[in-house]
Each structure stands twice: as C-alpha cells, then as structure tokens.
C-alpha cells in the first residue's frame, strides 16, 4: 500500500497572553454550567433594568404581572372588592395563627424524622472531643 498512517497535531497551550496579562490555560476551560450561569445573570440584569425603566421585555413580563397582581391584592384587601384568592389573603390577615398550625405540621414531621439523628451525632461529637486534645503545637508553658 501507500504506508500512510493517520496522525493528529495541535497546540499544547502553556500560557495565554492577552493585552499585557498572562493567564494559565485553565481560563479557557469553560463549562456548560458556567455559560448557563452567566446567561441567567444577564437575563436577571435585563429584567431588573427593564422593570426599573418600565420597558416590557420577555424577561420582565412575568415580574410585571406578579407586581400587578400584588397591587390588585392590596386594593382588594383595603376595599370590599373580593375574589377567591383575595379571600384567602384576607383570611390570613384576619387570623394568622390559623395558618401557623398548618405550616407547623410539615416542620413537626421533619423534627420527628430527625429525632433519631441527635443520638448518632452525640456519639460522633464524643469521639471528636477525644481526638481534639492536641494543642496544634502549642503547650501550656511554651
């Protein structure tokens, strides 16, 4: 045959020089998660600026709708106007303790499930206390 074998070539980047600054090649390792985080940060910035100046965009419309709904609820609470969700808010404002019992039920269930955990933690703390007697190189009379 032709005795041709495949090969590959490329650059092995040691340092990156940009406008007088030298960086390690790790700055070029951009993950999809970091791109996603930066994109969402930009969307949040756009939404906040557009909300402040009153310019509706796709990013700010959900916030505008929620803010409008909050205003409608505030008007409904202060007046005699009522609709089903406003009735729930009025009931909560009239007697917050009734809703505290409902909110305490999931907390009580979580507390019951973690009741067995403190016994295990106490045993662990005792073993850590025994091992923490070293003075990190400093004695009483050093």
UniProtKB/TrEMBL annotation:
Pfam families reported for this sequence: Ribosomal_60s
Superkingdom, natural source: Eukaryota
Keywords: Ribonucleoprotein, Ribosomal protein
Chain intervals with Acidic residues compositional bias: 125-136
Renumbered residue ranges of the record's region Disordered: 116-142
GO molecular function: large ribosomal subunit rRNA binding; structural constituent of ribosome
GO cellular component: cytosolic large ribosomal subunit
Function recorded in the entry: Ribosomal protein P0 is the functional equivalent of E.coli protein L10.
Name of protein: Large ribosomal subunit protein uL10
Organism expressing this protein natively: Liparis tanakae
